[in-house]
Amino acid sequence: MPGLLHLAAAAVGRPDERDADALVAAVRLAERGGLDFVTFGDPAAPAGPGVLAALPAVAAATERVGLVPALPGGPTGSGGLTGPGWPDGVSGTRVLEPGVPGAVALEAGVPGIGVSESGVPEAGVPGFGVFQAGVPEAVGELDRVSRGRGGWWSDPAPRAAEGAATPEPVSGARPVRVAGATGAPDAAARCADVVLVPASGPAQAAGLRAELRALAAESGRDPDGLRVLATLLVDLDGEYAAERGHGGGGPRPTPRGPLYRGGPVDLAELIASWHAEGAVDGFHLTPVDPRRDLERLVNGTVALLQHRALFRTFYPGGTLRDHLGLARPRALT
């Protein structure tokens, strides 16, 4: 019996996109559809300063949807993000947690995004709580200003050497960690809460999910604490596009990943069938045309899934972990 269906979408644009109003509008649309979270950038093109500068405004304009910027991965980037109670096994950087002993404060006077004297997230405020591209502390601050809706996406580095120390499982970590499985599936299974897998069919997706769950169990984690989402580019230009004679016929491999061409109704059928087979826990969908396809995804595909009682019509909780059905952090329970 498949569990709850999870859906996420990419807020597509340039990694350094500075149009805060456009980002706010896109994320609010995703929230109206009840999506679990929205991503900004990807590990190959991480969220730039413009996106990070807009995130406090996005957090203030939304109430439930998760916010997951992509940050650089690897042992020298944000892939090493860890801290009290939420290790990832790559490095020892601590997240910014005001009032937590041992937390790392950012350099005073650095312009960026901070919190004003009244406690409101504000662009251009220097000092404690500043967001900067690639700075691990930004993730903890995003989670704080969004009241538990923050997450981060970076692909973890593989284990350095055979016999290296095995990290503590990620269970109970915060913020939510999202990772891809293509480079180092064992590291993703050990470290991530959500793993994104490119798959062109349900059989391939099911095989990847089974492998990741097995790797998670081998590392000492409860595999039921891992969510595996299939990644698809979606081109919702019209219903006829889904037919083979019009270039459709299901996801097709492309250099950017599996691509679905068709209409919102056929995409809903695909999502429902893959999930019913237990192939994946859900989908991460990247619109080819940001404005057109996100609107058709929410008002067409998601609305149909909700009408069929296959996807939520309201958020049962207030944090990203609540949406994903993941355990609360040990420190908060």
TrEMBL record:
Lineage top rank: taxon: Bacteria
Pfam families named among the record's database cross-references: Bac_luciferase
Organism: Streptomyces actuosus
Keywords from the named record: Flavoprotein, FMN, Monooxygenase, Oxidoreductase
Keyword Flavoprotein among record annotations: yes
Name used for this protein in its record: FMNH2-dependent monooxygenase
GO MF assignments: monooxygenase activity; oxidoreductase activity, acting on paired donors, with incorporation or reduction of molecular oxygen
Transmembrane regions: none
Domain Luciferase-like stretches: 161-234
Gene3D superfamilies: Luciferase-like domain
Region Disordered, annotated ranges: 149-173
Presence of the UniProt keyword Chaperone in the record: no
InterPro entries, sorted: Diverse_substr_monoxygenases, Luciferase-like_dom, Luciferase-like_sf
